[in-house]
Design goal:
With 235 residues, the protein is mostly helical. The chain has 8 helices and no strands. It starts with a helix and ends in a 7-residue tail after the last helix.
Length: 235
């Protein structure tokens, strides 16, 4: 297989988990967003993802002196959550299509899946030579692990940003709270998967993701119910 064809295949395979998750979660939106805006947000998540690596390594080499350990994982999680929000801010935040509270959750998880797609491509590019079986195995782990984690942590942030529609005066505080929770969830997941005991790592990370999936699904429904009741904005 020629190099261009190989790279194209890696891109397609790397994006596939994100596309599948996106199609599943978009079904929770009663008023579907324009496909063009969804695609742009997804692509912006891909485009901005290298910024996370730059910021992570800059601080790691300047202040931390390591790219492992709890402190670095916390910093890495924070940077990635911020970059994913930037992707939404760059494309959808000021769009007239952003006209419902639940839209914040939709666009943030979309940007997160773009971010995860780039991560998947980079990981697969390093392991593709190990054979089809290894590639499929890694892709499966990424689909059920890191890709889903990015989606859920950003959707959690999106919920708190969505609450700003109802408590306008507290938008900044709600964003900060959401960013803290999203970062902590992301950080805990990173700690689990870095565990030396793979069995323990897989068990705890799976429990975390399942719990988060139920929580985020419930938050989607909660914000839609609040929106349907027509609760007025608080100035």
């Amino acid at each position: 297989m020629s190099d261009p064809a190989l790279y194209a295949l890696l891109v397609v395979i790397g994006i596939l988990p994100s596309v599948i998750w996106l199609m599943l979660w978009l079904r929770k939106d009663c008023h579907p967003e324009p496909k063009v805006l969804i695609v742009k947000t997804l692509l912006m998540g891909i485009i901005l993802s290298p910024l996370a690596i730059v910021f992570q390594l800059l601080v790691a080499r300047t202040f931390l002196g390591t790219t492992t350990g709890p402190t670095f994982y916390l910093w890495a999680a924070f940077v990635e959550e911020v970059v994913k929000f930037w992707a939404v801010a760059a494309i959808a935040l000021r769009s007239p299509e952003m006209d419902e509270p639940v839209d914040m959750m939709i666009y943030l998880l979309t940007a997160a899946l773009g971010f995860a797609a780039m991560e998947n491509i980079l990981v697969l590019s390093q392991t593709f030579g190990d054979g089809v079986g290894a590639t499929v195995g890694i892709l499966g782990l990424r689909f059920a692990g890191a890709t889903l984690l990015h989606l859920l942590s950003s959707a959690l942030l999106g919920y708190f940003v969505a609450l700003g529609w109802f408590w306008h005066r507290h938008r900044t505080r709600l964003f900060a709270i959401g960013l803290v929770f999203a970062t902590l969830v992301h950080w805990v997941f990173n700690l689990f998967i870095s565990s030396m005991d793979q069995g323990v790592s897989l068990g705890f990370s799976s429990v975390l993701l399942i719990a988060m999936a139920f929580l985020v699904s419930a938050l989607f429904d909660k914000i839609k119910r609040r929106q349907a009741r027509g609760v007025p904005l608080t100035a």
